[in-house]
């Protein structure tokens, strides 16, 4: 398991970058990445006129996860706007704390598993077996990490819409994260604000 620490890269939001959105003074972009490196061993296989079919056992998995986060702020952005964008950072950071555990759990369910796969030859069947395991792992990570983040961010946006609510950023974050308290807080997921 390799987890890259969440690091917020801050950038200046220039006038050129604001074109088309003249009132925008802050902007965020983050991306959950999940990359499993899976090793399988052929248990048995056979080749026929239609290609190759085999059973492959998952022997080893190393998962790499990251959450790059970019924040753009114009020099005339208000403290309220900056604090609002920092709310996205806090939500992502809170949910990303559980990412290692979820990634490990997704791998544990695959280790020792035997996967039947087909391909034009042994190598393509092997790659298909790896793809089957990786797809299931991505889906699990997405369900447990990415989707709760997306729901929390949507709730946070609703709670903090400009002019419609005077709720503090911390209270909005707390309420947004409560929505998914019943789940532990997937392929890559992208979210831009």
Helix and strand sequence: EEHEEEHHEHHE
Query: What count of helical segments does DSSP give?
Result: 5
Silhouette: elongated
Largest sheet: 7 strands, mixed
**N-end to C-end Cα span:** 29 Å
The count of strands amounts to 7
Contiguous uncertain segments of 5+ residues: 182-193
Structural class: alpha/beta
Question: Nearest-angstrom radius of gyration?
Answer: 21 Å
* Helix residue percentage: 40-55%
* Total discrete domains: 1
Give the overall pLDDT as a whole number: 87
- Report the portion of residues in β strands: 25-35%
Structure, described:
By secondary structure, the protein is an alpha/beta fold. It has one domain. Helices cover 41% and strands 32% of the residues. It is built from five helices and seven strands. It has helices at residues 15-18, 79-96, 99-108, 122-159, 169-178, and strands at 2-3, 8-12, 26-48, 51-66, 69-73, 114-119, 189-192. Strands 1, 2, 3, 4, 5, 6 and 7 form a seven-stranded mixed sheet that branches. A hairpin with a 2-residue loop joins strand 3 and strand 4. The chain is elongated, with a radius of gyration of 21 Å. The relative contact order is 0.20. The model is unreliable at 182-193 (pLDDT under 50).
Main attributes of the structure:
single chain; 193 residues; alpha/beta; seven-stranded mixed sheet; 5 helices; disordered C terminus
Write a compact overview of the structure shown.
By secondary structure, the chain is α/β, with parallel strands linked by helices. About 40% of the residues lie in helices and about 30% in strands. The chain has five helices and seven strands; from the N terminus they run ββαβββααβααβ.
